[in-house]
Amino acid sequence: MSKHILVVDDSKTIRNLVAFVLKAEGFKVAMAEDGLDAIEKLSTIDPVDLILSDINMPRMDGFTFIKTIRQQDAYKDIPIIVLSTEGQEQDIQKGISLGANLYMVKPAQPEKMVRNIKMLLG
Ligand SMILES: [Mg+2]
Q1: Cα(98) to centroid of ligand 1, in Å?
Q2: How is the chain split into domains, by residue range?
Q3: CATH number of 4-121, picked from 3.40.50.2300, 3.40.50.1980, 3.10.20.310, 3.90.230.10
Q4: pLDDT tens per residue, the chain (122 residues)?
């Protein structure tokens, strides 16, 4: 069965671009436009196998989103890849320490993103 990936980004352009790449690889894709929307989507899609999340978003940013879901039993083990324009070491450290499995800086090469997803999905 194809794996379900939740793409979280406030940019519709990025969401559509990432979704296009993932669908071409056979993944099922759901999208959310910020952290709050993503939490809502998590409760309606079962299971979400992996999350790709932006950091800078309105209402709830990626750091808060990751921190929030890592405190919940149902979501604490879902692999998370951050995809952000913020590439400073302190941002990467923060993302990883809050519970992201990987941190990728935009623009990310599609092949590299897909390779990382497949690696995390085992
Ligand atoms: Mg953003």
Answers
A1: 18
A2: 4-121
A3: 3.40.50.2300
A4: 899 999 999 999 999 999 999 999 999 999 999 999 999 999 999 899 999 999 999 999 999 999 999 999 999 999 999 999 999 999 999 999 999 999 999 999 999 999 999 999 99
Quote the ligand 1 centre to 121 CA distance (angstroms): 25
Burial of 71 (C-beta count, 10 Å sphere; 0-12/13-18/19+):
exposed
Q: What's the gap in Å between 11 CA and the centre of ligand 1? A: 6
Cα gap 114→44, rounded to integer Å:
25
Q: What is the pTM of this model?
A: 0.97
Give distance in angstroms: CA of 9 to centre of ligand 1: 6
Q: In what order do the strands lie in the sheet with 4-8?
A: 28-32, 4-8, 50-53, 80-84, 102-105
Q: Rounded distance, CA 34 to CA 96, Å?
A: 19
